[in-house]
Amino acid sequence: MSGFGETKHHLLHDRVVTLAASRCMMPVNDNAIIQVELLHHANQALLSSKVARDGSGPLKASFLTILLLEDTIAHAQHPFGICSGAATVTLHRFIDVETLTTDQLALAIANFASLNDVIFADYLSPPIAEPLADKRDSI
């Protein structure tokens, strides 16, 4: 991932910002922040995105921090997993970065961002209007 965040990749919405040697972040829009955390074994990275259940928006805390604060377990279905805590919901995916090219990593992040929009739509969008069943006129 070295050099990945220096310029905006053509497949990504924004530039990936390096926060530390093993942690990067990419704002997608006002509603999502995709984080890439390099793991110190097996050349893997963790893509994750977190939102508050109260609709206040995305969170910048690391994946492990959220697990510890929420005192919860992450379910790791393949290829994506969900961690649902009392105050947050986290979407995550493990990827093998050893064989990925920069384009493949960018595509994985872009696809994750798209899925993120679908999964978290209920937490970030205004509530869907209730049907007008009780306000129908009789003929």
Provide structural commentary.
The chain has helices at 63-70, 102-119, 121-124, and strands at residues 17-20, 23-29, 32-38, 44-52, 58-59, 80-84, 88-96. With 139 residues, the chain is an alpha+beta fold. Strands 1, 2, 3, 4, 5, 6 and 7 form a seven-stranded antiparallel β-sheet that branches. The mean pLDDT is 78.
Short descriptors:
single chain, about 140 residues, alpha+beta, Yope Regulator, Chain: A, seven-stranded antiparallel sheet, 3 helices, about 20% helix, about 30% strand, globular
In angstroms, what is the radius of gyration?
A: 18 Å
The best one-word shape is: globular
Q: How confident is the prediction overall: mean pLDDT? A: 78
Please provide the count of β strands.
7
**Uncertain segments:** none
CATH class label: Alpha Beta
Task: Kindly give the count of domains.
Answer: 1
Major sheet summary line: 7 strands, antiparallel
- State the helix count: 3
